[in-house]
Amino acid sequence: MLTLDAKLPQGPIEDAWTNHKDQLRLVGPKNRSKYKVLVIGSGLSGASAAASIGAMGYQVECFCFQDSPRRAHSIAAQGGINASKNYRNDGDSTWRLFVDTQKGGDFRAREENVYRLAELSTAIIDQAVSQGVPFAREYGGKLANRSFGGVLVERTFYCRGETGQQLLLGAYQALEEQIAAKTVNMQTRTEVLDYVIIDGKVRGVISRDLVTGEIKRHVADAVVLATGGYGNVYYLSTNAKNCNVSALMRAYRRGAGFANPCFTQIHPTSIPASGDYQSKLTLMSESLRNDGRIWVPRNKDEKRKPSDIPEADRYYYLEERYPRYGNLVPRDVAARNAKDVCDQGLGVGPTGYGVYLDFAAAIEQKGVDAVKSKYANLFEMYERITDDDPTKTPMRIFPAVHYTMGGLWVDYNLMTTIPGMFAVGEANFADHGANRLGASSLMQCLADGYFIIPVTIGNYLSGLEKDNLTTDDEHFAKVEAEVRDHANKMLSIKGKRSTNSIHRELGKIMWEHCGIQRTEASLKEGLKKIPELREEFWNNASILGVNESMNQSMEHAGRVADFLDFGELMCRDALLRDESCGCHLREEHQTPEGEAKRNDEDFAYTAVFEYKGEGEEPELNKEPLNFEALPLMTRNYKS
Ligand SMILES: Cc1cc2nc3c(=O)[nH]c(=O)nc-3n(C[C@H](O)[C@H](O)[C@H](O)COP(=O)(O)OP(=O)(O)OC[C@H]3O[C@@H](n4cnc5c(N)ncnc54)[C@H](O)[C@@H]3O)c2cc1C
Q1: Is the C-beta atom of 77 inside 6 A of ligand 1?
Q2: d(CA 584, CA 517)
Q3: First CA to last CA across the chain, in angstroms?
Q4: How far apart are CA 489 and CA 539, in angstroms?
């Protein structure tokens, strides 16, 4: 049984973070260089954490598997980052951002965390501006804003459609400064494969140099996982091809609780899949829903070009079904409605699984240049992929796996159930509950990295007694041997089937059985099929090459092996959560209009899974959720 002490602050929520910080123990400036912190990941959460912790004077070693920290997947983020600055004077506030986020997540997040996130949001923008991040500006020079789904204010700051890239450049510059100052030692093209736990605390990691294959040991006083999300368990997703779950699964196997693994966000506006051999999907940012109107033809056998279909024969289904929020309903609602109209036979495109996102009305009203200036690179990207110009003909879009709200369980200090091991960014189960509102991930990654972890890690380190542990310790040798055994086991399979095809099959199982909608029967079926596919992997996978060299075949195989175990954990969680909430739609629990129907009496908790050993069922632990500041309410985006 895990001990889930969330270390939540007491007192009014408005003062909670400030009071909590005041109680935390500090490490004095002169002592900081005695402590070594390993940061695994250099995306927005990892780069901001490593740079900030390094700047404080701790010794930091930062790892990523790309050839440069600035190639982390965060670079793909498009539409924007939220902050309750109220520059639009449209009634925004910390409280309103807190309410929107809690409601958007369908009350399956800790309210103390969500409030802190809203509170820190404004400082993030100041930090980024001071780093030179080129946010879009109004004519008078003020930072511009736009809307994202699930809100009635304009609080999203953006750099056209490349917000993630510009924010990452800001964090990367800060990181590079610390690399030059030698407080951060950067390890690129290196994959962390396992963790060394001594006396219950994390004390190091084992890594593999992806160029030479060399296995290395690294000693630490604390480890911060900033390893991103696991949407690629579905094979097709909007995530970068290399995003994976291995760093989290291996921490889970060493004792870190895994929280809400089944909460997966399906984004409504991706370019539809075009064939079986596609390896990833391309997102069209939610920001496009500010100016794009979503519709399908009213008649099933419509054959006319979209521009020839008159208004009367167009079904603007979101605007009709949700008059208050229209096209800006939250992502789970938009995604389910798109699937619904396609299931009714109204979908467009060769597969019938597509809907239109149409800019004609905005172009007529504002002019093509004004619209293009907001979304330029997104339009270009769409045109390059589809050979259609979205200013002339509507985009075709369809829902795709995009973001994972689950991750390692962390307390209010962002520490996992393994002392000394922290998780930040998409890697933790975080603040988004059962559904993340758009533009809130970048906000959380940077709140964690710039403002929370640099403070809370000191509290942990100050309580540590310094010792002279080195990588010669027997615990390191033992974990290293286990890492080598795992690689040798994979290399000895000598089967016939590519690990890519096994991954693709797993993705299909996940999409069909644990996808946009789930049922008890579909999940049970998934739980039957995944172990069979795992058997196939361990008996018939073709993994070439040797361990001690560059070996991408083995790298990939290790990740697929972890996805197979993880897919099972996801289905198990989805089956046990016998309610609908946010993105988790169990078909058995819906309102007559097809909205998610929560069961607060039985499921107002975070599900935290505990590893019990190879082949054993994991144990479900529960962290109850309390709603004191904001009482539970039913989500309603209609009126
Ligand atoms: C196409 C797209 C558009 C998006 N647009 C937005 C948006 O507009 N606004 C918004 O708020 N959110 C957006 N998101 C979500 C957001 O981009 C991500 O949630 C966020 O960037 C994740 O950052 P991260 O730091 O947690 O992880 P990542 O940026 O994924 O970084 C993970 C890091 O971990 C490293 N790593 C992983 N495993 C290991 C290992 N075993 N060993 C060593 N290193 C490892 C990687 O090398 C990498 O450096 C978007 C997501 C996608 C897919």
Answers
A1: yes
A2: 7
A3: 44
A4: 11
With cut-offs at 50, 70 and 90, classify the pLDDT of residue 375: confident
Distance CA 37, CA 58 (A): 7
Cα separation of 174 and 481, whole Å?
Answer: 37
Render pLDDT for 544-577 as a digit per residue (tens, 0 to 9): 999 999 999 999 999 999 999 999 999 999 999 9
Q: Are 76 and 259 in contact (CB under 8 A)?
A: no
Separation of CA 164 and ligand 1 centre (Å): 9
Note the pLDDT of residue 639. 67
Average pLDDT over residues 468-494: 97
Distance of CA 24 to the CA centre of its chain: 28
Residues identified as active-site? 331
Q: CATH says 13-263+405-463 is which class? A: alpha beta
pLDDT of residue 511: 95
Q: What is the pLDDT of residue 16?
A: 97
Give domain limits for the chain. Answer: 13-263+405-463, 269-400, 474-601
pLDDT at 149: 81
Taking the CA of residue 289 as centre, how many other CA atoms within 13 Å lie in the half-sphere pointing to its CB?
A: 33
CA distance 593 to 331: 17
Q: At 409, is the pLDDT very low, low, confident or very high (cuts 50, 70, 90)? A: very high
Is the CB–ligand 1 distance for residue 167 below 6 Å?
no
What distance in angstroms lies between residue 539's CA and the mean position of ligand 1's atoms? Answer: 33
27 has pLDDT over 80: yes
- Whole-model pTM? 0.96
Pocket test for ligand 1, best of 52, 61, 64 (most atoms within 8 A of CB): 64
Locate the DSSP E strands across 321-388. Answer: 355-358
Check if CATH label 1.20.120.530 holds for domain 474-601. no
**CB of 183 closer than 6 A to ligand 1?**
no
What are the tens digits of pLDDT across the range 84-114?
999 999 999 999 999 999 999 999 999 999 9
Distance 481 CA to ligand 1 centre (A): 30
Helix (H) or strand (E) holding 398: strand 395-404
Question: Which CATH number is 269-400's, of 3.60.20.10, 3.40.190.120, 3.40.50.300, 3.90.700.10?
Answer: 3.90.700.10
